[in-house]
Amino acid sequence: MKKVLLTSLGFTAVLLIAAPSKSQEEPLTKARQYFSPLPKDFFTKENSVYNNPKVINLGKMLFFERRLSVNDNISCATCHAIEYYGSAPAKKQMGVIKFQDRHTPTVLNSAGQFVQHWIGNRKDVEDQAIQSLTGPAAFGNKSLEDVEDKISKIEGYVKLFKEAFPNDSKPISGKNIAIAIGAYERTLTTSSRFDEYLKGNTKALNQKEKKGLITFIEVGCAACHNGPLVGGNSYQKFGIVAPYWEYTKSQSIDEGRYLVTKKEEDKYVYKVPSLRNAALTPPYFHDGSVEKLEDAVKIMAKVQLGKDLTNEDIDNIVAFLNALTGNLPKNFREPPILPSK
Where does the chain bind heme c 1 (predicted)? Predict the structure, then answer.
C-alpha cells in the first residue's frame, strides 16, 4: 500500500512538473478571439461585379499610370511604391502641387479597411482614387473632364476601357477610372505566416513570436488592433493617457478627425492603422514622426495604455509584428507595360 501510494505521488509529481503553465499553453485559441485570416480579396457584394480580369488589369495599368497627373510625373505607385511595400519612406509625400497632410500608409490590404485616410475623409478606395485625380497633394488636375480628355487621346486606353465597361456609353470617365483602380487595389492582399498560424499550423510562428502575440494581447494592444487586418476597423484617440506629441516629438500637432467633423471629442482621433507589414513600412504614425518600430511600440504602450514595457516585452512584440509581413502580390511587384499611344 505504501509503495502504491509513493508511486502514485511520484506520478502526480511528474504530471505537475510536465504540465505546461497557462502562459506556456498554445496561444492559438486566444489569438482566434481577436484575429482572423486575411480574405483572398476585398471585394464586397456592392462591387463584386467589377471582380473580373479586364477591370482589374485596367486598374493595375492606371495605378502605375503617371499620365493621370497634370504634369505626367505622379502615379499611385509613386507614393505607394513597390520597393517600400506599398508605402513611402518620407514623413510626408509630395504631390503635384503640395505635400500631403499626413504620412502615406501602405496600399497593401488597405481596401479591407472600414474607411480610407488617417482621418476617415475618404469612404473607400474608389472614393480615394477619384478624389486623388483633382487633389493638389496628388494628381493636381483642374477637373475630372481634363483627365478624361487626356486619357481619351491614348488609343490603347480607349480599347481597354471599352472592354472593361462594355455597357457604358462613355467608358472613359473619372468614375470608371476610380472603379478600375479600386478593383485592382481590392486584390492586393498579403497573407503571412500569421494567417497560416490562425488556420491551425501552430509551427508557423516560433516561440518568440508566440510570446510576442500573447504580450500583444495581454498588454491591451489587441483591444484596437484586431480583426483580419490587425487594425483598420475603428477610430481611436491618439494619446489617451498622455499627449502623443510629448513622446513622438512631432513637429506640429495634428487635430485628427476633428478637422472633418468639428466635434470636440474627435480631436486627435485617427483611424487605427492596420499592422500588416508594419515592420517594412516605416516611418510610423500619422505624421511619420517615429522611425523605429521598437520606439513606436514603446510609445503606443505609454500614451495609449499608460504602461512601461520592458525591453523583452518590446522585443517580443516586434518579433510578432514581423510575423505579419506577407509576400508582395505578384500583380503588384511586376509593373505593367502601359499603352504608348
Answer: 76, 79-80
Other C-beta atoms closer than 10 Å to the C-beta of 16 total 8
In this predicted model, what pLDDT tens digit does every residue of 48-79 receive, in sequence order? Answer: 999 999 999 999 999 999 999 999 999 999 99
Question: Is residue 224 a known part of a binding site?
Answer: yes
Return the C-alpha cell found at 81. Answer: 511604391
Q: Any binding-site annotation on 76?
A: yes
Reported CATH class of domain 22-38+190-322: mainly alpha
Q: Is residue 103 part of an annotated ligand binding site?
A: no
221 is in an annotated binding site: yes
Main-chain phi, psi angles of 290, to 5 degrees: -125, 125
- Using alpha carbons, select from 3, 23, 15, 82 the residue that is nearest to residue 213: 23
Any binding-site annotation on 79? yes
pTM of the model: 0.91
Domain spanning 48-189+329-333, CATH architecture: Orthogonal Bundle (1.10)
Average pLDDT over the chain, rounded to an integer: 93
Same fold, 22-38+190-322 and 48-189+329-333: yes
The residues spanned by each domain of the chain are 22-38+190-322, 48-189+329-333
Backbone angles phi, psi at 273, to 5 degrees: -70, 150
